[in-house]
Amino acid sequence: MTDPSAHPDDPHYVHRTGWLRAAVLGANDGIISVASLIIGVAAATPERGAILIAGSAALIAGAMSMAAGEYISVSSQADSESADIAREAEALAATPADEEAELAAIYRARGLSQATAAAVARELTAKDALGAHVRDELGLSEHLAARPLQAALASGATFSAAAAVPLVAAWAAPAGAIMASVVAVAVLSLAVLGALGARAGAAPLVPATLRVVGWGVFAMAATAAVGRLFGVSV
Known about the structure:
Helix content: over 70%
Distance between the termini: 49 Å
Shape: elongated
Mean pLDDT: 83
Number of helices: 7
Low-confidence stretches: none
Strand content: under 5%
């Protein structure tokens, strides 16, 4: 199914949602989860070796979990889309006239006159009946189609890259300043992530940045509280 753009040199931002959602989710989870775990462990014990081991394990396990989770969830979405497309193909083969009338009804509901809607449905059916139904009845398009491997790679790669930031901060920080260093680096990284995500999706900069930073700070504070309360690695 093709979906040509009237202005290919200036694509819509919505075309980026497939990989952008997975990339932002992976990076955000990488920073928050690994930084929170490091802070929780550091709150329970000042031993650098235990902190770095816990952070490294969280990075590896988290990256694999994010990639696998994205692949499985987006694969389920892709399976549902494929099933709907197959049903439309069967309906077009069995009752083409009814399907054309259904397409015309969709266009009438969008504001076209009965005559125009019927003409549009007839012409689109003659050119690519299945493509017209997939696009206008199911609301699917080539740009927004589920891509499991793309989502898995984007999420896993960005998780790993982002999770490495607080881990490196913990490794480089002087003894006794690990928590403060990780918190500072994590907050700065979350602010940069929020700004980059907003820019990539053409969203308002300040609300997007505050949203990312706010939830990250809450997660780190909660984990630090648990570490101090119980004095165990979490």
